[in-house]
Design a protein that fits this description.
The chain has 346 residues and is α/β, with parallel strands linked by helices. The chain folds into 2 domains: 12-129 and 255-315, 3-Layer(aba) Sandwich (D-Maltodextrin-Binding Protein, domain 2), CATH 3.40.190; 130-253 and 322-345, D-Maltodextrin-Binding Protein, domain 2. The chain is built from 12 helices and 12 strands. The protein has helices spanning 40-58, 69-78, 90-98, 150-154, 172-179, 192-200, 212-220, 231-239, 267-277, 280-289, 305-308, 326-345; strands at 12-13, 32-37, 61-66, 85-89, 125-126, 130-137, 163-166, 206-209, 226-230, 244-254, 256-259, 322-323. The strands form 2 sheets. It has a 6-stranded mixed β-sheet with strand order 1-3-2-4-11-5. The chain has a 6-stranded mixed β-sheet with strand order 8-7-9-6-10-12, with helices on both faces. Helix 1 (40-58) links the parallel strand 2 and strand 3. It is globular and about 65 Å long. The two termini are 29 Å apart.
Length: 346
C-alpha cells in the first residue's frame, strides 16, 4: 500500500491514444474532473492505465490532487467540494461512508458482474487488491525455513530476534489472530483481547515499523529476519535482486478504493470514470504497471502468467488469504485503536 504524500501537486493530463471502450457520458460533459490520490507509483499506474485512456476516449481531462483525508471532510462539511473522485484506503473509505461524506455509487453505471466477491459497496468500491504478507530476508532465512503460516512466524525457536509489524491495530490484529489459530474466515468480529494476547507472546521481539518503505528496508538490511510487509513494498526489491522474499499464504488482502465526495458537481462524469477504471482492459494495464491485483476477474486472462504469480487476486493467490472486513474497522476502529494504544504503553 502507499502512504499519502504531504506536498501539493496538481497537473492536467492530456489525451493519449488508446483502444479501450469509452463509457457513456450522460448529460453535459465537463471539460475536466479532479481525481485525488496518494501519488507516487500508484498515481503513475493510475495515469497510464486510467487517466490518459479515459481522457483519450471522453475528452475529459483529469486534474490530479493529493488525497489528504482531513480535506475530504472539511470540504464536504463546508459545501465546497474540490474533488470529483478520490482514492482512499478501503477501510478509510468505509469510515468516510459511515460519516456521510460520500455519494452513493450507481451500479446501473458501474458494472459489478465480474468483480471479486465482497468488492462492491454502496458508497465505495475497491479498485485493486494488495496484501499484508509474510516476508523474510533470504540471507537470514533458508528456503526450507521460510514461514508457511503466521503461527510459524510467532515460533520463537524458529524465528528468534526481532520480527517486524505495523504499529497499528489495522491488519496487525488479524495477523495476530491467525497466528493464534483463528481460521481466516472466522476473523470477524475481531476478538481484540485475544489478538493482544497473541501479540503479547512476542511483544519484546517486535520491531514496530510505521511506514511501508520502512517495513521493506528493515528486511533488506537484515535488521529483522522476517515479519509483515505489503507485497507492493517487497516486490520491486525482490525483482531487483535484494535478499527478500514473501508468501501469500494466510495473506490479509487490503485495497485502495474509489469514492465520490458528497456534493461534487460532476457526479455523472465521476461515476463514468470509476466505471471505466473497473473494466477488464484498464484493470489489466494497471496490474502490469504495479503489483496490485485487479478486482475485475476478466482482467486476469489479459495478464501473463509470470506476472500473475505475484498478484494478490490471481486464481492461485486469492484463495490463500482473506479480504479485510473494511466495514468492521469503520464501525470499531476508534475504540480498537484506543485499546491497542493502551496495550502498547502497558
Amino acid at each position: 500500500m502507499t502512504e499519502p504524500r504531504r506536498f501539493p501537486r496538481r497537473a492536467v493530463l492530456g489525451a493519449a491514444a488508446a483502444t479501450l471502450a469509452a463509457p457513456a457520458i450522460v448529460g453535459a460533459k465537463p471539460a475536466s474532473i479532479v481525481v485525488a490520490s496518494s501519488g507516487g507509483k500508484l498515481e503513475e499506474a493510475f495515469t497510464a492505465a486510467y487517466y490518459k485512456p479515459f481522457t483519450a476516449k471522453t475528452g475529459i481531462q483529469i486534474i490530479t490532487a493529493v488525497n489528504t483525508y482531513s480535506k475530504l471532510k472539511a470540504t464536504v462539511d463546508a459545501g465546497a467540494v474540490e474533488w470529483d473522485v478520490a482514492q482512499m484506503d478501503a477501510a478509510a473509505a468505509a469510515n468516510s461512508a459511515k460519516l456521510g461524506l460520500l455519494e452513493k455509487l450507481d451500479y446501473a453505471v458501474i458494472d459489478r458482474t465480474d468483480l471479486v466477491e465482497g468488492v462492491p459497496h454502496e458508497e465505495y468500491i475497491p479498485c485493486d487488491v494488495a496484501a499484508a504478507v509474510m516476508s523474510w530476508n533470504t540471507r537470514n532465512v533458508a528456503p526450507a525455513a521460510a514461514p508457511q503460516s503466521w503461527a510459524e512466524l510467532w515460533d520463537t525457536k524458529r524465528f528468534g530476534g526481532q520480527r517486524g509489524f505495523w504499529k497499528q491495530p489495522f491488519q496487525t490484529m488479524e495477523i495476530a489472530l491467525m497466528a493464534d489459530g483463528v481460521a481466516k474466515d472466522q476473523l470477524y468480529p475481531i476478538d481484540v483481547e485475544r489478538a493482544l494476547r497473541s501479540l503479547e507472546r512476542i511483544k519484546p521481539q517486535i520491531f514496530w515499523w510505521t511506514s511501508g518503505g520502512q517495513s521493506a528496508q528493515i528486511l533488506i538490511d537484515g535488521d529483522i529476519a522476517a515479519g509483515m510487509s505489503w507485497n507492493g513494498r517487497v516486490f520491486d526489491p525482490k525483482q531487483g535482486g535484494a535478499p527478500v522474499d514473501f508468501s501469500f499464504n494466510q495473506a490479509l488482502f487490503v485495497a485502495d478504493a474509489w469514492v465520490i465526495p458528497r456534493g461534487t458537481k460532476n457526479r455523472q462524469a465521476a461515476m463514468d470514470f470509476i466505471a471505466f477504471t473497473l473494466q477488464s482492459g484498464p484493470q489489466a494495464e494497471f496490474a502490469k504497471a504495479i503489483p496490485y491485483g485487479p478486482v475485475n476477474r476478466k482482467a486476469l486472462p489479459l495478464i501473463d502468467k509470470p506476472r500473475l504469480a505475484f498478484l494478490p487476486s490471481s486464481d492461485e493467490n486469492l484463495p490463500k488469504g482473506v479480504l479485510q472486513n473494511f466495514d468492521w474497522w469503520a464501525q470499531n476502529g476508534q475504540k480498537t485503536g484506543e485499546r491497542f494504544n493502551s496495550w502498547m504503553l502497558g
